[in-house]
Write a structure and sequence with these properties.
It is a single chain. The protein is an alpha+beta fold and 259 residues long. It has two domains: 19-182, Nucleoside Triphosphate Pyrophosphohydrolase, CATH 3.90.79.10; 184-253, Orthogonal Bundle (Arc Repressor Mutant, subunit A), CATH 1.10.10. Helix content is 29%, strand content 21%. The chain has eight helices and nine strands. It has helices spanning 35-42, 89-101, 136-145, 154-158, 168-183, 199-209, 217-225, 250-253, and strands spanning 22-31, 56-61, 76-77, 80-82, 109-114, 125-134, 149-153, 228-234, 244-248. The strands form two sheets. Strands 1, 2, 3, 4, 5, 6 and 7 form a seven-stranded mixed β-sheet that branches. It is elongated. The chain starts with 21 loop residues before the first strand and ends in a 6-residue tail after the last helix.
């Protein structure tokens, strides 16, 4: 039987003749946590208290330390791993989330490839950044009870108040920008709110995710009403006048999250 001839390009080189950078995946898991849970999780150490509201990102204890980094100052990173032979990118992201954070059942999406030449001290590594915005309850147990996991506000990462390794700060920032852009066009596109919901709850969620891009109350409500259906029911058990309850209009917003 004739063996398959080795492929070569116009210069006569095969794939084996080209350098092979390593390929990794890094996942920015974003969420809007319950402030009471954060107070419970970080109340034992004032240095670890994360009192800011808004959009947060899940971080894990980094396995990589710079040569001049003291042991008393840990570094944090996004859950990530190297791509294995015979493995797809999504399989690698799911494996990273499970092994690094004990989380499964998420559906991260690709953000972009991060390929700065010196982005990783271990050598030439391309990272395919992924992101996901999830309901807090999906990762609550992992965050509250795993000592190697921290939840930090996106703002604290962007402002360098939270130490993260290599270019993970840029991955977090771009993931947050993508999510915030989605929330400027339709109501709760990632379906974090259980239906039905009040306009007040919807506006509160949007402001926590995108405080700078969410317009004033009246403008916000006029814009969102184009995508909502009035259930003709009202909320109960709250203080003050009962509020009208709404659902997303699937014919306007779609049934699935943004792609």
């Amino acid at each position: 039987m004739r063996s398959q001839e080795l492929w070569r390009d116009e210069s006569g080189r095969s794939l084996e003749d080209y350098p092979r950078p390593s390929v990794a995946v890094d996942v920015a898991v974003l969420t809007v946590p319950d402030p009471l849970d954060l107070e419970l999780r970080y109340s034992s150490s004032s240095q670890e208290t994360e009192s800011e509201g808004g959009l947060h990102v899940l971080l894990v204890l980094s396995e990589i330390r710079s040569s001049n980094q003291p042991l008393s100052k840990p570094s944090w990173s996004l859950p990530g791993t190297f791509l294995h032979d015979g493995e797809t990118l999504i399989q690698a992201t799911n494996r990273a989330l499970l092994t690094k954070a004990g989380i499964k059942g998420l559906h991260p999406r690709q953000l972009k490839v991060f390929d700065e030449l010196r982005r990783d001290p271990r050598g030439r590594v391309l990272s395919v950044g992924h992101f996901e915005l999830v309901n807090w309850e999906k990762i609550r147990q992992a965050v509250l009870f795993n000592p190697d996991i921290r939840l930090r506000s996106v703002r604290s990462v962007a402002e360098k108040r939270t130490r993260v390794r290599i270019d993970h700060r840029e991955i977090v920032s771009q993931a947050a920008e993508r999510v915030q852009a989605d929330y400027r066009s339709v109501p709760d596109p990632y379906r974090l709110l259980a239906e039905p919901f009040t306009l007040r709850d919807l506006e509160s969620l949007h402001r926590r995710i995108d405080p700078d891009g969410t317009p004033a109350k009246d403008t916000f409500r006029r814009r969102m009403m184009n995508y909502l259906v009035d259930t003709e029911s009202t909320s109960s058990g709250s203080i003050g006048k009962p509020a009208r309850l709404f659902e997303n209009n699937p014919s306007r917003t779609g049934r699935n999250r943004p792609t």
